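Section 3.1: Structural characterization of target chains.
Under the original work plan, the team committed to producing a structural model for every single-chain target entering the pipeline before any wet-lab resources were allocated. The record below documents one such target. The sequence was received from the expression subgroup and is listed exactly as submitted; it comprises 196 residues.
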Amino acid sequence: MTVQQSGRRERKKAATRQKIADTALRLFLERGYDAVGIRDVAAEADVAVTTLFSHFASKEALVFEQDEDFEHRLTRAVTDRAPHEPLIPALRREILALVRHCTADSAAPIWRMIDASPALRKYDESVRLRHAEALATAIAADPTRTRSETAARTLARFVIDAYSLSREAPDPEAVLDEIFPMIEAAWAAARPPHPT
């Protein structure tokens, strides 16, 4: 297979995935999350149910279709920061950008839907735990890290909690301004890793 064919296939897969996600979100917002089934989404998107499940593992995943991008952005805040750039400011900057995206007027109906659904709230919680683990892995692998793996995992949880608390607040930036000095102080107080 040529590179061109491979690239075309990947673009087609990405377009199908986006079409399914956009269709699902539109239906969920129009009819209510619980009133729409997987078959409804597949039929409206003009794909087979098996195709839908090849792109999304569950109905809840349709709502969180940008979840993978969110996770990559968090880990890149650690791995792609400039040499000698401190970790905490890089994380704060990325969390602020993510919160701004998630608190835009266009996102409000989606978050109202999530908040109103026990299944979506539970899924959101599992997603946040997964993001924290991915972020902890990136922090622990950072060659400039001078703290223990436990400290890295704790920092990741604090950062994800800061995102959640600020996203829900009337003034997200003020919340981050309050939380991140505490996170920085905790990181500064953390023990260095044990020598092996």
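The mean pLDDT is 92.
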